[in-house]
Amino acid sequence: MLDYAWLMLLFPALGTLIISLFGTRLGKRAVSILAPAMVFLSFVVAVAAFVSLLGLPVDERSREVTLWRWMVVGNFSVDAALLLDQLSITMALAVTCVGFLIHVYSAGYMHDDERVPRYFAFLNLFILAMLTLVLANNYLLLFVGWEGVGLVSYLLIGFWFEKPAAADAGKKAFIVNRVGDFGLLLAIMFIWTGIGSLRFADVFALAPQVWPAGSAVVGAVTLLMLLASTGKSAQIPLYVWLPDAMEGPTPVSALIHAATMVTAGVYMIARSAVLFDLAPASGNWVAWVGVLTAFFAGTIALTQTDLKRILAYSTVSQLGFMFIAVGVGAYAAGIFHLVTHAFFKALLFLSAGSVMHALNGELDIRKMGNLRVKLPTTYWTFLVGAAALAGIPLFSGFFSKDAILFAAFEKQLPVWIIGVITAFITALYSFRMVFVTFWGQERDRRLFNHAHESPRVVTIPLIILAVGAVLTGYIGLPAISAIDGWLAPAFHPAGAAAETHSVALELILLVVSGLIALAGVFAAYQAYMVDPDLPKRVRASLGRVGRLVENKYYIDEIYDMFVVNPLRDLGGWLGGVFDRRGIDGAVNGLAGVTGWLGAQARRLQTGMVGLYALAMLFGAVALLAWLATR
Amino acid sequence: MNQFPLLSVITLLPLVGGLILLALPGARLQKWWALGVSLATFVISCLLFVWWKAGEAGMQFVERLPWVPQFNIQYYLGVDGLSLFLVLLTTFLTVLVILFSWEGVEQQLKPFLALLLLLETGMIGVFVALDLVLFYAFWELSLIPMYFLIGGWGDAHGTYNFLGRTLSWRVYAALKFFLYTFAGSALMLVAILVLYIRGGTFDLLALQQIGLAPNLQFWLFLAFGLAFAIKVPLFPFHTWLPDAHVEAPTAGSVILASVLLKMGTYGFVRFCLPLFPDASRQLGPWIAALAIVGILYGALVALVQKDVKSLVAYSSVAHLGFVMLGIFALNAQGVAGATLQMVNHGLSTGALFLMVGMLYNRRHTRLLADFGGLWKQIPIYGFLFLIVALSSAGLPGLNGFVGEFNILLGAFQMNRAYAVFGTLGIILAAWYLLVAVRQMLHGPLNKAENMAVRDLNVREIVTLAPIILLFFVIGLFPNLFFDKINPSAQAVVDALNRPQPIVSMAVDSER
Questions:
Q1: Residues with Cβ < 8 Å from B481, sequence gap 6 or more?
Q2: Which residue, A56, A375, B273, B342, shows the most beta carbons closer than 10 Å to its own?
Q3: How confident is the model at residue B214 (pLDDT cuts 50, 70, 90)?
Q4: d(CA A541, CA A135)
Q5: Residue in A245, A408, A279 with CA at minimum distance from that of residue A337
Q6: Cβ-based neighbours of B152, under 8 Å, separated by 6 or more
Q7: How many contacts, defined by CB atoms under 8 Å, are there between A and B?
Q8: What is the pLDDT of residues A473-486, one digit of tens each?
Q9: Is the CB of residue B407 less than 8 Å from the CB of residue B422?
Q10: Interface of B with A in 191-250 (CB under 8 A)
Q11: For residues A261 and A331, is the Cβ–Cβ distance under 8 A?
């Protein structure tokens, strides 16, 4: 079965091709069936590949499938080839499973849109690009998927391109991502010049021999990868595009900007575990970027009033947790949180989409309230998602976040402390959403009266995702963690000994995590149910700091002032002043001098350029003749 | 070697076809005739690809006849991996350009088409000539039709005060184009004569073996290099390009950007590197530095253009900067990548100019501010424009990426800093192209003129489809091309690194 893994890519590729060429002729109905079907087939292939991988002995669970020789130039060569191992299959399963559910949901959600075929062509293309990213066996093919998902993200954020905000947000996403891609491209060049191959297997086998641990080159490579990851995974300093990305259709926010694409950076760092192990300093950077992003984005999430934006900042914050994990070397914990987050965040976004659908597009939580009466199914699924996000014991996020915090506790105590504070904030904003949106009194009676539960094509994916948001936690139960043992060989092909944890310590920290989450929920209940004036008083006491947070630390404005505008001004000056007055002025001056000198010979000048050319040729021939007869 | 003079047929067929065209009556017949001639030339040129001897670095399909025996001038043609795809690009794009010009050229259609065919002969000749005099003749031959195309069929208005005289912009642009290029080639002619004095022959391959003193190499390199640098154009010789591109009719812009500029970059690979290896190594880092300036410069200026055609024109400066960077990386990845990138740029930028022209034919404006929301009105156009823009921005999976990546990989091996700056150019490319997409296709469709624009017709789709297909073929299967480019590129690089023969004074055996 593993040799047929390319089928996983073929189905969404066919879907994209068929829909983009014939989509409008096929019609909405056919397209809404075809696109999810293609992703479902991919999911089936992924499951089959997973099963056959399970059937193999542990040291054989890594198979490469070469599709074709991509390019050979001099001593540089790279194939279009897939790598099937524990990590890539785990990712592929998450991508196709969540991807399929979101396709189904989209069929209902996008039903009234006039551009359904285009939407599904893009969505299929996304699955293709994301699978290319996670299944590639070398860095260059990974890069194809990496830019591919960025492209689809651009297309789908700007799907409603008539809206200037959406069009601008899409453009911003692509360009900011390219800043990150700059880092990845350079890292790839470093790797190839150092090792002579881009194939993962070669790179990870040779890197420890070529690059001593802590050497400058491997440090540069890993830091460049970190830069790339901050772009794709929306971390400081390149996270700015993700909140704006919420201009896209809500299922897109769920699929691309929460569950899959944004986790690509985490995946790449985990995939490059061997390199990051050689560069401990870079690992520290990753962890610190992660924890600071988690904290800052968490604080911003507390102040936002747009439901999707809260979720967007929450995504940035949760990705920060994953960065902590891969930064401190707990790769399996990072991927574990990636998978649980994919389910519960997709669930939260799709539930938010259902709310939005019910309220005629309204996303401001200040106009909601008491919606659990009107949207019972959506309420329960949102509640499950929020519980998982907050890390309430026994929900999936609880286990995966705890695994990360435990690893941080062992490696980097300061990171753990900020991480725990952020976990509290997470619980606080999660249940702020629940209480303000679904509990209390309705705030806008007109909206409330018109609210209605979504159709089944929307709610059934929600229910399935809710089940997943609970169950995925149990593949990583502490002490007996299945995912840890399953994934470990992928990170350390040499077969490093698994570290032994103190079970007692892990359990103590588990209890601490649970209490922190519950404290966050309690605080949210106090602030938004019992004493609704409390947030205002807190806000007032914060003064300028509060305004700083509300304005998202003015990061967008700072970028505009120091990067975007100066570059544009420079371009204007170069094209307008430098070219026209500088270079052209000099050339014209030269021509003027020539003209003055040539005034004597004016009669010879007929002004016919063709004649000049002819004269030139004659002159040349005469010169030749002279040379020959000399 | 070959009995059949394939290269002569490819080179001269358009010229003969163009002359016959002059005798044909009626626009309809003229158009079909021109299309037929260019199509026949393209089909025949494909035989080069089919009959290609794989793995060979040297010249193929060689034709060699004495021409002016007194001066040892020969009619000497041949192609290798460096020129093969440029020949194919020329024949391919000429067909599409004629197809594009089916409508829109109302006046003087006959000379217009004849000039296009004459231009084709000149361009192919430049890429296949192996005798320096023959090369120079074709080089100048390609200059003249382009001058008339810009000056005669350009579509912009306004005047320019040139040294106290008032010229229309398009005449100014044509004159500027001509004078720049001609100034460059004058020095090249002198250098060719010096080479003849030294080597006693105009045979390019023989001249590569004579071994010139480094000092002489330096000056000859500069003389050739100036002609090529103006053509490319390398910063700071680029200011003729935006004017010429913007003023030229669409067909002229396409040919100018896609093929004519490649004569410069090709010249560097074909002449400067093998003839002046020491000078190339000595000057390489400086030229690469200018190339990088061009990459960033072109991109930043493109970013603020208000006219989409000049945006594309400045993007050419940036893209050709990449090609130059690859050539002067002086290694296999750089040279092969640059060779492929010449073709890629020809396709991507050619398609961009075609699409800008298609829109211009409908709206008679090229100002970004006049558009907006067009994707809603003309979805096929929007979809294809996006693909073309992404190809130009070097999206992996499409053609541009393969060339740019190898160029950067080559530059990285020479000097990491060069690769860093070059890679910055890739970020900027996405920026200015997406700005164009944002202004033209996205946003609300709120201008009355735009609401009546028709989508592409079948002829226009047929014009663009083969280019777009090639984007994917090159992006996904670049080895189809690298297979043929590699041996020749490797030979150029090897020759650069081979110790040069000691300079001998007595090379007069021929005379």
A1: B85, B340, B343, B474
A2: B342
A3: confident
A4: 51
A5: A408
A6: B108, B111, B112
A7: 175
A8: 887 766 556 677 77
A9: yes
A10: 193, 196-197, 236, 238-239, 242
A11: no
Residue B502 lies in a domain: no
- What is the structure's pLDDT at A236? 85
Judged by a CB distance cut-off of 8 A, whether residue B182 touches chain A is: yes
Q: What average pLDDT score do residues B239-246 get?
A: 83
- The span from the CA of B402 to the CA of A128, in Å, is 20
- Which of helix, strand or coil describes residue B470? helix
Contact B426 A174 (CB under 8 A): no
For residue B412, which residues of chain A lie inside 8 Å, CB to CB? 186, 189-190, 193
DSSP A364: B
Measured between beta carbons, which residues in chain B are less than 8 angstroms from residue A80? Answer: 476
In a domain, B504, yes or no: no
Q: How far is CA A554 from CA A168, B148, B151, in A?
A: 18, 55, 52
Using CA atoms, how far apart are residues A474 and A394, in angstroms rounded to an integer?
A: 9
* Chain A residues within 8 A of B494 when measuring between CB atoms: none
Q: Taken in order B364, B367, B373, B379, is the CA torsion positive or negative?
A: positive
SS (H, E, C) A102-162: HHHHHHHHCCCCCCHHHHHHHHHHHHHHHHHHHHECEHHHHHHHHHHHHHHHHHHHCCCCC
CA distances from B60 to A95, A463, B7, B126, B447 (A): 51, 67, 10, 16, 56
Residue type present at position A88: S
Chain A touched by B477 (CB under 8 Å): yes
- Spatial neighbors of A122 by CB under 8 A, at least 6 apart, are A152, A155, A156, A159
- Structural domain of B11: 6-497
B415 lies in some domain: yes
Query: Coil, strand, or helix at residue A86?
Result: helix
Q: Check A612 against B182: CB less than 8 A apart.
A: yes
| DSSP H/E element including A308 | helix A307-327
Measured in angstroms, the CA of B3 and the nearest CA of chain A are apart by: 32
In a domain, B474, yes or no: yes
Instruction: Choose among A287, A343, A330, A266: nearest CA to A481.
Output: A330
Q: Which residue has the tokens 């006039």?
A: A114
- Tokens at A238, concatenated: 């390149």
pLDDT band at A614 (very low <50, low <70, confident <90, very high): low
C-beta separation of B353 from B311 below 8 A? no
Please report the residues numbered 133 through 152 in chain B whose beta carbons come closer than 8 angstroms to any beta carbon of chain A: 136-137, 140, 143-144, 147
ipTM, two decimals, is 0.90
**Into how many domains does chain B fold?**
1
User: Cβ of A575 and B147 within 8 Å?
Assistant: no
Q: Give the lowest-confidence range in A342-351, A490-499, B428-437.
A: A490-499
Residue count of chain B: 511
Instruction: Show Cβ contacts of residue A38 under 8 Å, excluding neighbours closer than 6 positions.
Output: A11, A12, A14, A15, A124, A127
Length of chain A: 630
CB hemisphere CA count around A486 (13 angstroms): 22
Strand duo B73-79 + B159-162: pairing = unpaired
Q: Name the token pair of B271.
A: 């002449």
Instruction: Give yes or no for a cis peptide into B466 (omega within 30° of 0).
Output: no
Distance of CA A375 to the CA centre of its chain: 30
Strand blocks (E) in B40-94:
60-68, 73-79
State whether B424 and A182 contact (CB < 8 Å): yes
CA distances from B285 to A360, B83, B275, B280, B418 (A): 61, 24, 18, 9, 9
Q: What is the pTM of this model?
A: 0.89
Between B197, B337, B482, which is nearest A72 by CB? Answer: B482
Residue type present at position A17: L
Range B97-120 burial, b when 16+ CB lie within 10 A, else e: bbbbbeeebeeebbbbbbbbbbbb
Cross-strand partners of B159:
B168
Min Cα–Cα distance to chain B from A565, Å: 11
